[in-house]
Design goal:
One of its GO terms (cellular component) is cytoplasm. It is an enzyme of class 2 (transferase). Its EC number is 2.7.1.12. Keywords: ATP-binding, Kinase, Nucleotide-binding, Transferase. The protein has 158 residues and is α/β, with parallel strands linked by helices. The chain has seven helices and four strands, in the order E-H-H-E-H-H-E-H-H-E-H. It folds into two domains: 90 residues, P-loop containing nucleotide triphosphate hydrolases (Rossmann fold, 3-Layer(aba) Sandwich); 64 residues, P-loop containing nucleotide triphosphate hydrolases (Rossmann fold, 3-Layer(aba) Sandwich). 46% of the residues lie in helices and 11% in strands. The chain has a two-stranded parallel sheet. The chain has a two-stranded parallel ribbon with strand order 3-4. The longest helix is centred in the first third of the chain and has 20 residues.
């Protein structure tokens, strides 16, 4: 697509990385400032009329609301749309798969601060997207080319 790609893990503060490296799951207090920073990146891209892709474990509905609307979403847990700062239009892609497949992929990953042992805490935290959220669900059991094609088709269909 030629869009700028951001990996949300690159934007975690050092304290979050240390906590995860020690096997301690992040909580909302850890994640909200990080999500607000990610919202700011997406807002900047939107203001510049550029599309972007953000790889991010936005596990809870509230987290996705923060990505859409920034800090203002924290109070209401819903995206707000004040005229001077309208909510971002985001298509969330829920990459869905069984824990054993994801665990095997995490075991092969090298040099990352999040140990595979934290996967269960992520599954425990997960609130899969649901209506009226703007999302698609893609199975991780498909091949990588199939996954990419499905996501690309959804984006191009609007």
């Amino acid at each position: 697509l030629g869009w700028k790609f951001y990996d949300a893990d690159d934007y975690h503060p050092l304290e979050n990385k240390k906590k995860m490296a020690e096997g301690i799951p992040l909580n909302d207090e850890d994640r909200i400032p990080w999500l607000c920073a990610l919202h700011d990146i997406l807002r900047r891209e939107d203001t510049s009329r550029r599309d972007a892709i953000l790889a991010c474990s936005a596990l809870k509905k509230m987290y996705r609301c923060v990505l859409i609307s920034g800090a203002s979403a924290i109070e209401s847990n819903q995206p707000e749309q004040p005229e001077e700062n309208p909510a971002l239009k985001i298509l969330f892609v829920h990459l869905d798969g069984p824990m054993d497949i994801i665990a095997a992929r995490l075991e092969r990953r090298r040099g990352h601060f999040m140990p595979p042992e934290l996967l269960k805490s992520q599954f425990d935290t997960l609130e899969p997207p649901s209506a009226p959220e703007n999302f698609i669900t893609v199975s991780l059991e498909k091949s990588l080319p199939e996954i990419v094609l499905e996501i690309e088709s959804a984006i191009l269909q609007g």
